[in-house]
Structure formats: C-alpha cells, structure tokens
Amino acid sequence: MDVLNILATVGSALLALGAPGLPLVLALRLRPLTAAVATVPASLLMIAVAAELGHLIGLHWSIAWPLALGLLAGAALWPLGRRRPAMASAPDAPDADPDAPTGFLGTARGRAAAVLTGLVLGGGILLARVLPMMGGIDAISQTYDNVYHLNAVRHILRLHDASAWVVGGMTAMPGESVYYPAAWHQAVSLVVEVSGQDIPLASNVVMLLLAAVVWPLGLMALMRTATTAGPVGWMAAGTLAGVTGAFPLSLMYWGIVLPYFLTMVLMPLVIIGLAHVAGLAPSSAQRLGTGQLAVLLPVTGAAVALAHPQGVFSAMVLGLPILVWGTVSRARERFSAARVPGHRLWPLAVLTVVGIAVSSDLWTRFRPVQSSAVWKPNASVKEAVGQAISLAPNATPSFVPMGAVMLVCAAAVLLLSRSRWLLAPWIAASVASVVTRSTPEGDLRYLLTGNWYTDNNRVTALIAVAAIPVLALGIESLQRWAGRRMPRLAGLPGQAAAGTAAVLVLVLALISPGSRVNQGYFENDWQSGVLLTSDERELLEQLPEVVPEDAVIATNAWNGSSLAYALSDRQVLNTYMSFQAEPEVHLLNGRLDEATTNPEVCDAAEDLHVDYALDFGPQELHERSATYTGLNEISETGAAEVVLQVGDAKLLRMLPCRGTDGSMNP
User: Exposed, middle or buried: residue 625 (CB in 10 Å: 0-12, 13-18, 19+)?
Assistant: First the structure.
C-alpha cells in the first residue's frame, strides 16, 4: 500500500471527523482537550443533518454541505460563547482536588505532555496490536455485517445521496425507503470522496482513528473535566485505553458492528455531560458552563443515537447511576448539618426520577423483537463475575491478577478520592456484563439484554468505558496517598512511578489468557479468507476493466462476490445476505444457470439487465454452502462463459438465450 495513499486517507478522515463540527465547538469556547473530543460528535451531527437536508432539497452529496451547515451552526452559537465568563463558577460541585501536582506536571507544558504521553502510549499500543491482527491497513473484515457496511458506502456514492433512508433502502424493495443508522457510512463516504481512495482503506482508517485517537482522548477528557484527577490520572486513562479487549478491540472484529463501535467511542463525552448535570464534576476552569452543557449534551446525545440507537441504551446503563449518585449525595448534604449553600436537591431529584421513568418506557418501547435476541449465555454466574471484574472480553477466561488490580483501584477510588461517583457506572457495567454472560435464555434475559439482541459482545463493551477511569484514578489516588506519607513520592519520582504502574497494568492485561484468546478471535475474523480470498479480491479489483459501468452482475453475498459493488463500483443483483427483492431476483439466484434452457429465467435476466455473474465457489460464510444454486455451477451449464479468472474465482458473461416470446435475448 502506497504511503501517500494512506496519508491522503488519514487527512481526509481527520477532515470529515473534525471540520464540520469545528465551528460549533469553537463557538462554545470549550477547553482544548474537551474541544478536541467534542468535534467528532458535532461533525457527525452536521454530516447526518446535511445528508437529510440534501436528500430533501435534491443536492448531490458532498463534504461541502456538512461544512456549510457547521459554519451556520457555529455562527448561530457564537454569541453564546461570548457571554461565557473566563471561568465557570460551580457552587453546586465539589471543589477541585487540593493535591494539585507541582513541578513540571503543574505547568501548562507538563499538562500537555501528560495528555500527549497518554495518547501516544494508549493509541500507539492499540495501533501496534491491531494492524498485524488485521493483516494490513487495507484488509477486509471477513464478517457478515461488513458486506453491508462496505456496500452501503458505495450505495451513497453511486446515488449521490447519503440519507439514512436511502442507505436502508439498499436492501429494500425497489422504490422503498427504510431507515438505517447511517452516521458511519455517511462519514466514510466523505473520506472516500475527498481522498479518492478505496472504500476498505477509508473504512479502516476511520475505525483506527476512532480507536487510537478519539477513544484515548475521550477517556482523558473525562478524567480532566469531570473528576479530581490530575495529569497522572489523565495520562493513565489514555495509556490504559486498550487495557481490555472488551472495547475497542472486540467491536473492531465482532459482527463487524461498526455503527455500534462508533457510538461507544462517543460514550466518555456522554458521561462528562451527565456528571455535570448531576453536579459531580469538580469546580475548575475545565468545568462546562451552563450554556456549553446545554448545547454539548444534546449534540452528543443526538450523535450517539444517529450512530446506533443501541448507544442510547448504553448511555442509560452508564448514565442513570450517575444521576442517582448525584441525587443521593445532594440529599445527604440537604439533610445533614454540613449543608452547603447553593446546592439544590429537588431539581436534580426530579430530573433523575423523570430520567428513570422515560428510560423505562424507552427500554421496552424500542427494544428489538424477541426473535432477534439470538445470542446465548456462555458462562456460569461465578465465571461471569470473575470475567467482569478482571475486564475479560466475551467468551474469554478471567484473570485473577487483573481482577485484583481492578478491585484495589476501585477501593482506592472509594477511600482516597473525591470522585467516588465513578464507581456507579462501573458497578452498573459490571452487573450488565455478568447478566449478559450468564442469564439463561428466556424472558428475563430478553428483558435485561434484548435491547442489544442479547449480544454479549455489545453489552460487555460497557466495561471499558466505566472501568478505565476507575483504574486511572485509582492509580493516581494511590500515588498521592503514598506521597503524603513519603514526601519523596509526592513529586516527579512518585508521578513517574504511577505512570510506570499504568504501563505495567496494561502489560499485565495484554499477557492475560483472555487477551490471547481475543487476539485469536480478531485474527480469524480478519484473516481467515472465509468471505473473500486473495484471489477473489484480485479478481474484483480487475473487474472494472472488463465489466461496463451500466452492467448488473449476479452475485452471492454469502461468498463475498457481492462486494463487487463496494470494491469494483459495479451494480450487483444482491448487495447483502438479508434483503427484499422482486420474485425475478430470487428466480435468478436459484436458477440462473438454466438461462439457456428456461425461457422464464432468460426473461428475468433480460428484465434485470444481468449480463455477468461471479462464481466464487460453494464455500460461504458461517459454514454455509451454495446458498444460491443458480450461481454454483453456472460455468458448467453453458449459460455463461468465463471472461476473467484468478485462481478459482471466475467472472462470467451471460450467453444469449431464448425468452418466452421465442426471441433471442442478447
């Protein structure tokens, strides 16, 4: 892969993920770290809204429209930022931690260095692990959902329309519109448009940027903005971004559920907002003002929902305990002798009750049907508890040393810090992890985890969002505690020791049995060739030289040949495994090889303009075989002739046949 092509794609991805939302973020006058993270959900929202407006107005899809919309949003919000005072006062929040670091880490350069170190260590190690497991930056995930995601991007580019209803319509009956959460596909389509590179490369670069840059930055922004952590805690959070394979690694291979992966990357910003609403963020220059919060939280929430609706349920699991914790803390103050002036209980209590009531209604109202809840438990309750505490990914063994570290850090947060509220979402995520891994099939499992199709991988991903901040703050709290007892550990030596401890915790997690098992899952889902072999991909890359732009190719999504849509930019008969289509499509899928002997098949091929077919053999995904029998032996029945072959992969041109009216169809 040419380095210049990669750099062009990276630059285009940074543009798509950052530029549309930048004016809005600048208008809010956010602090630098929070602003860097907030540009992503703001950009996604601008992209999604621009896609729908463009669809209604009839505009060709282009990055110009999200950029223009972002400028308008920024201009509209600019007066709000001008009214914000230099430092947001917060009488309803705990004071900033008095153990602020001195020396180098107490300076602006030191704080910036801590953030940069956390990003380089956390993001760099994630990249160093993921790229070899993928098999290359332009590799193709060999998974069921990847066929949809890659083809959906091509669908946007071919139709010049990025509406979520157009994306969903790709697998619907002709002329029908169906909603599909398309923020991922909209963003990747812009990267392809700007860079001019292939869809797999653009998709992978966006995925890697989110995992190795946005995710660590989000964790550090959470520590910086919503807790009493200092530079050591921020750096530790970034360093530990890949401490558990539950996220982001598992969602970079499982499914591959890239829209849900996107929504989970945004979750730290959701927690930041809810911690401020609950009055739990410390009073400091980093604290969000009321106006900033009033804009940023809805923007982030909308981006989360548009990326994948299941992100809303994830936010409920992580966010409601934060509101409850804040309400209980405010109630204790309200009815104690140490009542703090300015702290108001009833508004937060009412908000919490309303939040619980609304969430309960949404939980059942928008839960997928029970027939879609197909994933089964894979652990006993005891095993699931061990896996949750030790941050083990789904279907991997627990690791006692890592569990011990997690419990020690949780105890340190409880006993030594003033951001104990971090324990609330961690406990909730751990309980959810235990439930999804161990609850038997039935109504209870569906009630508790059916919102994620009872998919263990999606639910266990919550652990990373909640546990990493606890680990990071626990490490720093222990360092501060040690520094108060041994002054030589209060300065740079102790801070360096804490940073080293964070690295050692990461190393401990990477050598755990669960990490090795998870790596095997990852490599298999990217490098097995069960969906698309190297020969088949080479043929698809050569296909545009042979097949005209207006031709339709008969394909089988189950064996990867339908990726001709994404990779070759040629229309295919079947874009995905699950679809709705006219009877003629199903007829050709089952009997295209009879075109020269069956007039009805001949007419169907003529009506649908099917001039070519791809024969990638009987091997299919999920150990299926020859689902579309009309393509399985087409090269041997005389219905088509081979015009291009790479290994066993064949492109065939349909031969003339006689229709029901007796005339020859070309």
Answer: exposed
- What are 620's strand-pairing partners? none
Hey, what are 127's tokens?
């990249």
Tell me the one-letter amino acid at 632: N
Q: What is the pTM of this model?
A: 0.95
Mean pLDDT of 490-495: 84
Contact in structure between 368 and 450 (CB atoms under 8 Å):
yes
Residue count of the chain, please give it: 666
Distance CA 12, CA 15 (A): 5
Contact (CB, 8 A) for 279 and 271: no
The neighbour count for residue 139, using CB atoms within 10 Å, is 16
Q: Decide: 287 and 281 in contact? Cβ < 8 Å.
A: yes
Cα end-to-end distance, the chain, whole Å: 40
Q: Give bridge partners of residue 650 from the DSSP assignment.
A: 615, 645
Please check the confidence at residue 297 and state whether its pLDDT lies above 50.
yes
**What's the number of CA atoms in the CB half-sphere (13 Å) around residue 456?**
21
Q: What is the 3-state secondary structure (H, E, C) of 86-140?
A: CCCCCCCCCECCCCCCCHHHHCHHHHHHHHHHHHHHHHHHHHHHHHHHHCCCCCC
At which residue do the structure tokens 């309803």 appear? Answer: 92
Instruction: Please state, for a pLDDT cut of 70, what percent of the chain lies above it.
Output: 95
The model's confidence at residue 490, banded by pLDDT at 50, 70 and 90, is confident
Check pLDDT > 50 for residue 87. Answer: no
pLDDT in tens, 192-233: 999 999 999 999 999 999 999 999 999 999 999 999 999 999
